[in-house]
Amino acid sequence: MSAPSQDLLARMALTFEAQQFLYAEARLLDTQNYKAWLELVTDDIHYWAPVVESRERRHRAGHYVAAADESAYFDDTRATLGMRVARLGFPGAWAEVPPSRMTRLISNVEVGEQGAEDIPVRSCFYLFRSRLETEEDSYHGVREDVLRRVDGELRLARRKIIFAQSVLTARSITTFL
Amino acid sequence: MTFDVSRLVDLENGLIDRRIFSDAEIYDAEMDRIFRRTWLALGHESEIAETNDFFTTWMGADPVIVSRTAQGIKVMLNMCRHRGGTVCRVDRGNAKLFLCPYHGWSYNPDGTLKVVPGLEADYRHGIDPTQWGLLEAPRVATYKGLIFASWNPEVEPLEEFLGDARFYLDCLLDRVEGGTELVGGMRRWIIPTNWKHAAENFVGDSYHAAATHASIMRVPGLEGAGGRVKDVVGYQAALDNGHGVGMWMASEDNARGGYGHLAGIDDYLKSIQDQLVAKLGELRATRLTPVHATIFPNFSIEFPFASLHIWHPRGPLKTEVRDLTIVDKAMPAEMKDMLRRHCMLRQGPAGTWEQDDMDNWSQTTYSSLSPTARGLMANYQMGMGHEHTRDDIPGRIDNKSSDINQRNMYARWAELMAMDPPPPQVPAACRSHSGEISR
Question: Record's NCBIfam families (chain A) (predicted)?
Answer without folding.
Answer: PRK10069.1
